[in-house]
């Protein structure tokens, strides 16, 4: 039986302003999650909703106390995006990082989650520059006793696979700089295609399997900080200019991610990603024993009636089903 500590992101518990952080914290804690990832904007929203309003630092400390009283740890603050290689002044970006790290420290979060650069028009793509800047970010984070969980996103401008993110982790070469792996990004980058009728790349199965085999063989477990699982909803009709989620200047995988990410194996809602193959590689074949987090962005959760308690139950049902399927695969292997 898998004994991974189970986390969930606040985005997976509701995406409506009435779905408050205190309600999400209680829902996560009462349904068996041991830690939570917190979206920065939700802290801001929480502070603004109090009477009198709280500063972001005060709001973070308040949320930390709520988590502690619910016996829930804060896994990460996220997403601190478009940092490395950006053309804006580095001093300004480091000031922003310092603020985020202060908030993470107020939360008593273990990690600051950093997605790979995707602002192509305003970034250089110079590897050495990105490495040096991420090294500075890591050193700044270390001064706050925070680690950086670096994530290759499927729409990344320069780093969009686990191999490239591992290369960056090795080049940054800091003990508090490691990987966040996300099943959605793996599948959306190598296997899925939301712009076609089939929803699958022509060589998707081969490309994904080859990548997973390389992962099992080559990725050091000590470079992984935590892993995230979610499924992808089949986009029907495909994501074209006629689709209501379509945005002309937004990468199709980013639009997909923001709107149609489900809990693993929610096939009844259109989930169809090969998330079991990814889970088998990560948890069975590689033997990942660390934190597993559920990160979902489901358009249905924008409805007020989609309450955090039910979404937390969705997450646990998904994990139970997922674990049972992985145990079966492990037995077959």
From TrEMBL:
One Pfam family matching this protein: AP_endonuc_2
Domain Xylose isomerase-like TIM barrel: 25-319
InterPro entries, alphabetized: IolE/XylAMocC-like, Xyl_isomerase-like_sf, Xyl_isomerase-like_TIM-brl
SUPFAM superfamilies to which the protein is assigned, alphabetical: Xylose isomerase-like
Superkingdom of the organism of origin: Eukaryota
Protein name, entry field: Xylose isomerase-like TIM barrel domain-containing protein
Biological classification of the source: Eukaryota, Fungi, Dikarya, Ascomycota, Pezizomycotina
């Amino acid at each position: 039986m898998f004994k991974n500590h189970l986390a969930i992101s606040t985005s997976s518990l509701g995406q409506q302003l009435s779905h408050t952080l205190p309600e999400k914290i209680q829902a996560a804690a009462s349904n068996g999650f041991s830690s939570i990832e917190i979206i920065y904007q939700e802290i801001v929203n929480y502070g603004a909703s109090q009477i009198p309003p709280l500063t972001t630092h005060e709001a973070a400390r308040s949320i930390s106390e709520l988590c502690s009283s619910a016996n829930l740890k804060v896994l990460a603050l996220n997403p601190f995006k478009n940092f490395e290689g950006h053309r804006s002044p580095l001093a300004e970006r480091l000031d922003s990082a310092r603020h985020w790290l202060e908030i993470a420290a107020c939360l008593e979060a273990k990690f600051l989650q950093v997605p790979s650069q995707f602002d192509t028009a305003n970034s250089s793509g110079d590897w050495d520059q990105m490495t040096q800047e991420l090294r500075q970010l890591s050193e700044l984070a270390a001064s706050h006793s925070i680690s950086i969980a670096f994530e290759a996103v499927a729409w990344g401008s320069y780093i969009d696979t686990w191999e490239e993110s591992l290369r960056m982790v090795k080049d940054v070469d800091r003990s508090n700089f490691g990987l966040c792996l996300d099943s959605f990004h793996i599948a959306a980058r190598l296997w899925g295609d939301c712009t076609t009728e089939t929803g699958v790349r022509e060589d998707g199965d081969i490309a994904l399997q080859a990548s997973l085999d390389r992962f099992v063989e080559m990725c050091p477990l000590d470079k992984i900080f935590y892993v995230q699982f979610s499924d992808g909803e089949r986009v029907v009709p495909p994501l074209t200019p006629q689709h209501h989620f379509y945005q002309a200047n937004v990468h199709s995988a980013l639009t997909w991610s923001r709107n149609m990410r489900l809990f693993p194996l929610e096939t009844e809602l259109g989930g169809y990603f090969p998330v079991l193959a990814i889970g088998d590689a990560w948890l069975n074949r590689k033997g990942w024993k660390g934190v597993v987090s559920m990160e979902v962005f489901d358009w249905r959760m924008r409805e007020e009636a989609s309450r955090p308690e039910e979404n937390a139950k969705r997450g646990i049902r998904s994990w139970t089903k997922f674990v049972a399927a992985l145990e079966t695969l492990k037995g077959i292997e």
